[in-house]
Amino acid sequence: MYSLKSFVIVALICTSLTVSSQNADSQQARLLVSKQVLNKLLVQDSDILVKYTIYNVGSVPATNVVLQDSGFPDEAFATVKGNLNIRFNRIPSGANVTHAVVIKPLTYGRFNFTAAVVQYKSSEGAEEPQFAISSEPGEGYIISYAEYDKKFSPHLLDWFVFAIMTLPAVVGPFMLWWVSKSKYELILKQKREKLSKD
Amino acid sequence: MEFKWMLLCLSLLAVSTGVARAEDEIDADEEMIVSEDQGLVETEGDESTIEDLEPTDADTYLLFTKPVFEEKASIELPAGRLSEFLVGFTNKGSNDLVLETLDASLRYPMDFNFHIQNFTTVLLEKTIPPGSQATLGYAFIPADAFAGRPFGLSINLAYRDYEGKQMISKLYNDTVNIIEVEEGLDGETLFLYVLMAAACVLLLVGGQQFLYSVSKKRVGGGLPSRTRANLETGTKTSKQIDMDWVPKNVLNHLNKQKAQSPKQKRVKKTD
């Protein structure tokens, strides 16, 4: 009798423990990290906007969130505005945070935009941080300023040279017409003066 | 009394096994094993197969970021516009997992084997250490022609474990609505408005012509209006002629002719 009772009690305790452990597993923060390069054209010595978005899809807030991006080496990129290492104290459940950094490429050529690393505490009582990596924008081509200038600049000097080169073709006929017109008008004026005198 | 305790024990056992079985079925439903000859073998729900398979060490999560949806709302994707989603992947095991490919496709909703539109398969080859998480980004554009119809959206993530065993996680396998984006002014609408404006102008011109003809009839009393024809009279006086452009020899010739004219001679004789 007692053995059965004790067995049932033990079974109940085990069940409750497993349920509580499952709940503890589900009661965790979970971060999805997106990294996006927003520029359509990547140009040497021109600003590039990089956007990081962290979504907490878990059921509890994420704490001590640290985002680090070592994908932009100092010899190839200069940070214009913002910080590539940033810390968020708390990201609530169901919320998302956005962080933007403006960088400037110092060289041109193909460049692989790698993932950023995020570490956070998935629950209040968690001792070890949870590591996560963001999405990768992938490979992009940074075009040289000369190449960009060739395609997209207003070409003011080129147009000025073109205007000077076309001047003889336009001014020559105009001058001939002007001389002829002024000569005719002079004769007409003299004729009218003569008639008025008569 | 003992019978009651026995019944309670049995019910507890049944509940616990039921929970375990349900979990196994979910795993079996979501995971597929790729055999050595690369053929997809979907795992069945029977005990023997589940025992043969090791429990999956991966945990996935799908989040649409563009367009943004309410939680548990029906997914509506705009035709001809970019749709984006993020995939969260957690390695819950004790060994590395290698993410291989992420692909998406639109299927015929009545038969998911019938592909309507395939999207890019992203090659990842990304190693996820034990206990770590990774986020994968994916973007696709449903074709304009599919607007206003439901389609099956299938999103699959392929990965392999340390032994090289390949698995495919079905991240999404449900029907979505492809909606037509209601823009303010497209080419078709603009052309329609231009056509309507042209028709209005035509009606106005027609009305004006009709009213003009009616008023003319009333004023004229039905008699035809007399219009004087403009006659070309030519140059009346010599002052209107500009002789500066006439060559000198022609002018001299004309002057000689004038001097020898008989009218002038007669006038001189009478004087």
Automatic annotation (TrEMBL), chain A:
Annotated GO CC locations: endoplasmic reticulum membrane
Q: Where in the cell is it found?
A: Endoplasmic reticulum membrane
Please list which residues make up the signal peptide: 1-21
Q: Give the highest taxon in the source lineage.
A: Eukaryota
Q: Glycoprotein as a keyword? A: yes
* Residue spans crossing the bilayer: 159-179
Q: What is its main location?
A: endoplasmic reticulum
Alphabetically list the UniProt keywords: Endoplasmic reticulum, Glycoprotein, Membrane, Signal, Transmembrane, Transmembrane helix
Q: How does it sit in the membrane?
A: Single-pass type I membrane protein
What is the annotated role of this protein in its UniProt record?
Answer: TRAP proteins are part of a complex whose function is to bind calcium to the ER membrane and thereby regulate the retention of ER resident proteins.
Q: How does it assemble?
A: Heterotetramer of TRAP-alpha, TRAP-beta, TRAP-delta and TRAP-gamma.
Q: Which family does it belong to?
A: Belongs to the TRAP-beta family.
Report the protein name in the record. Answer: Translocon-associated protein subunit beta
Where does this protein come from, organism-wise?
Acyrthosiphon pisum
Record lineage:
Eukaryota, Metazoa, Ecdysozoa, Arthropoda, Hexapoda
TrEMBL record, chain B:
- Say what the protein does: TRAP proteins are part of a complex whose function is to bind calcium to the ER membrane and thereby regulate the retention of ER resident proteins. May be involved in the recycling of the translocation apparatus after completion of the translocation process or may function as a membrane-bound chaperone facilitating folding of translocated proteins.
Q: What are the UniProt keywords, alphabetically? A: Endoplasmic reticulum, Membrane, Signal, Transmembrane, Transmembrane helix
Its subcellular locations are:
Endoplasmic reticulum membrane
Q: What is its main location?
A: endoplasmic reticulum
User: InterPro entries per the record?
Assistant: TRAP_alpha
Q: How does it assemble?
A: Heterotetramer of TRAP-alpha, TRAP-beta, TRAP-delta and TRAP-gamma. Interacts with palmitoylated calnexin (CALX), the interaction is required for efficient folding of glycosylated proteins.
Regions crossing the membrane: 190-212
Q: How does it sit in the membrane?
A: Single-pass type I membrane protein
Q: Per its record, how is this protein called by name?
A: Translocon-associated protein subunit alpha
Quick one: signal sequence residues?
1-22
- Keyword Iron on entry: no
Q: Name one GO cellular component term.
A: endoplasmic reticulum membrane
- A Pfam cross-reference name: TRAP_alpha
Record-stated family: Belongs to the TRAP-alpha family.
Q: Which domain of life is it from?
A: Eukaryota
